């Protein structure tokens, strides 16, 4: 289905006239030409029509793609599917390289950097990653060049925090919240930023940088005051205790919060906190 066909369908589904769609912006004749002949319209016109029909851009994009995910989202899904299989991951990275050569789209080099780094990180073999410095530079150069981050930039940074030192993370973190507030009215904003802040706190915890944790926790508190984000609120309580006890933190100290997480079916999060605590305590012993 072409754009003009979809706009016409959405308008008719809502029993709206062409005059109503045009009112305040263009003429009925211009809408008629667009719907019947598929004449070109500006992005501003498309936004206007969607606003008049109470259709969000995300909804429109979903319908336009027949409910199918985009090619780029499919590529990201494939990356997670191959992350634990070195042979398949190597083939996947080769595919990304070919796609980048064919399109000159930096998306593919960024995704390659992400999954290559994630592979070595989760294997605790980051020092064996021959592309580490190159991938860090690729990601950092891209992120530093974006004035207003979207979900892609936040996800990329959040997933690859371990590539950067604490000073860079803190400096970028302060501007990230400002950049992302452009999307504060979107339904996904709070969940995305809460996930990013939690990832940041977990990394700083592993690095035992409690001062940095305190800076980030301030923002997490602001975003987790409502019942919809109770898991984030529990995370606040956990990290408050970690900052208080520092290297002396023990599993018993976190037991109330972990019990609540498990009771609320957040067993995965509870398990992750236990694993990080064990890893941090092991490092303290050494």
Give the key terms.
single chain, 286 residues, mainly alpha, 434 Repressor (Amino-terminal Domain), 3 domains, 16 helices, globular
Describe the structure in brief:
With 286 residues, this protein is mostly helical.
Task: Give the topology.
Elements: H1 3-13, H2 18-22, H3 28-37, H4 43-52, H5 57-64, H6 71-82, H7 86-103, H8 106-122, H9 132-144, H10 151-159, H11 166-180, H12 189-206, H13 210-223, H14 230-245, H15 251-263, H16 267-285
Mean residue pLDDT = 89
Low-confidence stretches: none
Main sheet: strands, sense, barrel:
none
Structural class: mainly alpha
Organism: Lapidilactobacillus gannanensis
Domain HTH cro/C1-type: 7-60
Protein name: Helix-turn-helix domain-containing protein
Give your account of this protein's structure.
With 286 residues, the chain is mainly alpha-helical. It folds into 3 domains: 3-64, Orthogonal Bundle (434 Repressor (Amino-terminal Domain)), CATH 1.10.260.40; 71-131, no CATH class; 180-286, no CATH class. It is built from 16 helices and no strands. The protein has helices spanning 3-13, 18-22, 28-37, 43-52, 57-64, 71-82, 86-103, 106-122, 132-144, 151-159, 166-180, 189-206, 210-223, 230-245, 251-263, 267-285. Helix 7 runs antiparallel to helix 8.
């Amino acid at each position: 289905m072409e754009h003009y066909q979809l706009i016409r369908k959405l308008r008719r589904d809502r029993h709206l006239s062409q005059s109503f769609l045009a009112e305040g912006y263009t003429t009925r004749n211009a809408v008629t030409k667009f719907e019947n002949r598929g004449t070109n319209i500006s992005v501003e016109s498309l936004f206007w029509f969607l606003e008049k029909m109470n259709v969000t851009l995300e909804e429109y994009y979903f319908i336009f793609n027949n409910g199918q995910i985009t090619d780029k989202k499919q590529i990201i899904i494939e990356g997670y599917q191959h992350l634990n299989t070195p042979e398949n991951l190597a083939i996947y990275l080769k595919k990304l390289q070919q796609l980048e050569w064919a399109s000159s789209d930096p998306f593919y080099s960024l995704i390659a950097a992400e999954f290559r780094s994630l592979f070595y990180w989760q294997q605790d073999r980051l020092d064996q990653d021959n592309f580490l410095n190159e991938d860090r530079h690729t990601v950092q150069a891209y992120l530093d060049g974006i004035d207003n981050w979207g979900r892609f930039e936040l996800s990329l940074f959040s997933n690859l925090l371990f590539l950067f030192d604490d000073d860079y993370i803190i400096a970028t973190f302060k501007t990230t919240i400002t950049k992302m507030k452009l999307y504060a009215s979107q339904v996904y904003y709070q969940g995305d930023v809460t996930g990013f802040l939690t990832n940041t706190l977990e990394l700083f915890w592993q690095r035992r940088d409690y001062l940095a944790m305190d800076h980030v926790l301030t923002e997490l508190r602001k975003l987790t005051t409502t019942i919809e984000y109770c898991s984030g609120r529990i995370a606040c309580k956990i990290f408050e205790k970690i900052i208080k006890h520092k290297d002396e933190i023990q599993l018993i100290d976190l037991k109330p919060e972990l019990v609540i997480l498990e009771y609320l079916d957040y067993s995965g999060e509870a398990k992750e906190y236990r694993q990080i605590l064990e890893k941090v305590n092991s490092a303290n012993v050494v």
